[in-house]
Design goal:
Layout lengths: L1 E6 L6 E5 L4 H13 L1 E7 L5 H12 L3 E6 L2 E7 L11 E2 L4 H12 L5 E4 L2 H4 L4 H9 L4 E4 L4 E6 L9 E3 L5 H12 L5 E4 L7 H8 L4 E4 L2 E4 L10 E3 L4 H13 L4 E8 L6 H8 L3 E10 L2 E9 L7 E2 L2 H4 L5 H9 L3 E5 L12 H11 L4 E4 L2 E6 L4 E6 L4 H12 L2 E7 L11 H7 L4 E6 L2
Parallel strand pairs: 2-15, 3-14, 6-7, 10-11, 18-19, 22-23
Antiparallel strand pairs: 1-23, 1-24, 3-5, 4-5, 7-9, 8-9, 11-13, 12-13, 15-17, 16-17, 19-21, 20-21
Helix pairs in contact: 1-2, 1-7, 3-6, 5-6, 8-11, 8-13, 11-12, 11-13
Bound molecules: shikimate-3-phosphate (S3P).
Length: about 450
């Protein structure tokens, strides 16, 4: 059922909270545990719609998954060669990570399967995984000019290793090829143009695979023995924490602690960017869990100023750019984002949708070819804005509403549960007046 978020301006945000588990790590934990031999225990799993889609896909491939608690899974891995041919189409729902990483796993299977998803998924580019997988010998047919889902994969011969230069810094493409590389007959070497998130490399290595990274080149060797099962506690998602970081930074007098957040350096661009804009952020209690750095993040209400971001830092905060635009509209001076063309192929064209919706609230923001420019500080006003079916846009606009004049309604906000089902609850715990209502069509 459709939902709306109702947001009132906040006086200040104060408290000590946790956010839901990391989406990228949750997906990978289920997929890789399915390929291990034996039972894996995953705690802190993100029970959002995207990651649930991954569990359904794995179940249709013959993997037994138990859910003893809300955020805890036991995945009974079938081994690298134990997946079964599915009897139904594999529905990835709205999840780009599911469809692209599963394409890599399924390219390594001799049976045939079909991956599909929502209308949104069927509009997103798949050529970026299809082309290199075909170079490895995979048999894939796709819809419309070979670039869109549904994807039919298989029956596949034994894959062969390749050297591949990615033209975009995409962790989904890199991970797809690393997974296919596990099933190839020789090494696969991938070069990435920027530091795309490296959760796949960390987790697969911890499970006994051989993946070696040298600078921006990653080499995976074929599996010679089974992957070891996982015992993992998924850290909080920094992409979800980002909404709270911006909220606390822009609402004067705020003082917020977010505990147990993943701070993998390929994901912390938002901390660097907010600090460069003058935000008071402290990262404490840094430790490692299952090969991933985890910390507590403390943020205070701050006076922000504009800054320019381009290159690697943009890759390291690609999902946080809609909410960074909200911070920028409260910052003094110009904020410029460059080299963010990838935003055009996310759940929506996020350059377009961020600019469109923030303008409705009075922000001075304009789109460029590969990013946007925000001229602040502007006093935003409330009103009705739309998510366009994009979870990160829905949450960014709700954060904008916390420091606007008047009340804000975000329509089609049911998508928030794709990545951060506790969003309303966590913001309420910090003192925000925010609620979610079901809307009858
Ligand atoms: C993800 C990679 C990123 C990111 C997405 C999750 C992942 O996409 O935007 O939300 O889990 O690998 P790209 O690989 O397309 O940049």
């Amino acid at each position: 059922m459709a939902q709306e978020l109702h947001v009132q301006p906040a006086q200040k945000l104060v408290g000590d909270v946790l956010v839901d588990g990391d989406k990228s790590i949750s997906h990978r934990a289920v997929m890789f545990a399915s390929l291990a031999s034996g039972a894996s225990h995953i705690k802190g799993f993100l029970r959002g719609t995207d990651c649930v889609a991954t569990t359904h896909v794995m179940q249709k491939l013959g993997v037994k998954i138990d859910w003893p608690y809300e955020n805890e899974l036991v995945v009974h891995g079938v081994g690298a060669h134990g997946l079964h041919a599915p009897t139904e189409v594999l529905d990835c729902d709205n999840s780009g990570t599911t469809i692209r990483l599963m394409a890599g796993i399924l390219a390594g299977q001799s049976f045939t399967s079909i991956l599909t998803g929502t209308d949104q998924i069927r509009r997103r580019p798949m050529g970026r995984v299809i082309q290199p997988l075909r170079q490895m010998g995979a048999v894939i047919s796709a819809h419309q000019g070979n670039n869109l889902a549904p994807l039919q994969i298989g029956p596949n011969p034994k894959l062969h290793g390749i050297s591949y230069q990615m033209d975009v810094a995409s962790a989904q493409v890199k991970s797809c090829l690393l997974l296919a590389g596990l099933f190839a007959d020789g090494d696969t070497t991938i070069s990435e143009p920027g530091p795309a998130r490296d959760h796949t490399e960390r987790m697969l290595n911890a499970m006994g695979a051989r993946i070696v990274t040298r600078g921006q080149t990653i080499c995976v060797s074929p599996l010679t023995s089974s992957l070891k099962p996982l015992e993992i506690t998924v850290p909080g998602d920094i992409s979800s924490a980002a909404f709270l970081l911006v909220a606390a930074a822009i609402v004067p007098g705020s003082d917020v602690m977010i505990r147990h957040v993943g701070v993998n350096p390929t994901r912390t661009g938002i901390i660097d960017a907010l600090r460069a804009m003058g935000a008071h952020i402290r990262v404490t209690n840094l430790h490692e869990i299952g090969g991933e750095p985890v910390a507590d993040i403390h943020v205070l209400g701050s006076e922000l100023h504009g800054a320019t971001f381009a290159g690697d830092v943009v890759v390291r905060m690609i999902d946080e750019l809609p909410v960074l635009a909200v911070a920028a509209s409260h910052a003094k001076g110009l904020t410029t984002i460059r080299n963010a063309g990838e935003l055009k192929v996310k759940e929506t064209n996020r350059i377009d949708t961020t600019v469109r919706e923030l303008r409705k609230m009075g922000a001075t923001i304009s789109a460029t070819d590969d990013g946007f420019v925000v001229d602040g500080p502007g006093k935003l006003h409330g009103g009705t804005v739309d998510s366009h079916g994009d979870h990160r846009l829905a949450m960014a606009m709700a954060i904008a509403g916390l420091h606007a004049q008047g009340n804000t309604t975000v329509t089609h906000s049911e998508v928030v549960k794709d990545s951060f089902p506790s969003f309303v609850r966590v913001l309420s715990a910090l003192g925000a007046a925010i609620s979610s209502k079901e809307v009858r069509p």
